[in-house]
Hints:
The chain has helices spanning 61-66, 239-244; strands spanning 2-10, 16-23, 29-33, 38-45, 51-53, 74-75, 81-82, 86-89, 92-95, 104-105, 118-122, 125-132, 143-151, 156-165, 169-170, 174-175, 178-179, 193-196, 200-204, 210-216, 228-229, 248-252, 260-266, 272-278, 282-286, 294-295, 301-302, 308-313, 328-329, 335-345. The protein is globular. The protein contains 2 helices and 30 strands.
Amino acid sequence: MSISKNKFGFDKEENRVYEFKLENKNGHYITVLNYGATLRKIIVSDKNKNLVDVCLGYNTLKEYEENDGYLGAIVGRHANRIKDGKFDLNDVTYTVATNDRGNHLHGGVKGFDKYIWDYEIDNDKLIFTRESKHLEEGYPGNLKIKVVYEFNDNNELIIKYEAVSDEDTIVNLTNHTYFNLNGEGSGSILNNILNLKSSYYTENDEKCLPTGKILTVENSPFDFKSPKKIGENINDDNIQLKNGAGYDHNFILDSKDDLKYAGYLYGDESKIKMYIYTTCPAIQFYSGNVLTNRVGKSENNYSERTGLCLETQYYPNSMEHKHFPSIILKKNDLFKEKTIYKFLVE
Length: 346
């Protein structure tokens, strides 16, 4: 596996941004920016042995700076939503930035996706680091974060997360890549086939905040235990689908293993399959419901449901619901999680 570095552009403050290419012996590769530690390309072979980019992204740094959507980025300090931008920790109420209908989303107004990260190449690993200062976006503690990208000869994209704080804080990190296994810019993802090893999901209110209730997927549009097309039930008359304008829900993984098999995504045309493994307890399936009015790498329009996210994570809004897995990171403790996306043709 080889790693190379190329210039990608300058940010608004005239800081240089680089794009790194991680290529394996199969001629497959990924590229990652040090802006937002953003995954920009995933190039793998389809059924005809043609190379296909299955990751949505932009051609210029300006587009990454100016567009919402978090395409390919590492998001934090808290991925997903916090109700009213408030949480209590050690008898102190903290107020974090609100940027989504009065709630906090994906780290706030300037989350991890909007920073240039420090980088290091260590043999076959691309390592990004940054320090999130005390009260950045309202969070307590100086938090040191490390994100490691690997892409091996088994076509496994491995993302490792580590974080440590000098005060008690909260942490929930993920990668916000939009996938389309028929190829970015190829159109709708509704015929992509999804299998999730999840029997339960968290109920959302009308602002996509978990209410605290845990619902069974049985006899509902949320049952992906058997593989089915994403579009099969997406327009059903279901209040949860209405609340999310489609799927935008936290699926609880059945496995209790340290490294859990979460399921797979399959391109019905390309025959590319992506297996998902993670140490996290859940996965946010977002069907790209408000992805509109932007031009992607292929110069094709990214419109509603042309990409989907499978964000490995802890449950959203966990600080309000104490029966959810804790996202509290104690002073000097290590936050450590890993996610693997494995690509092959079947």
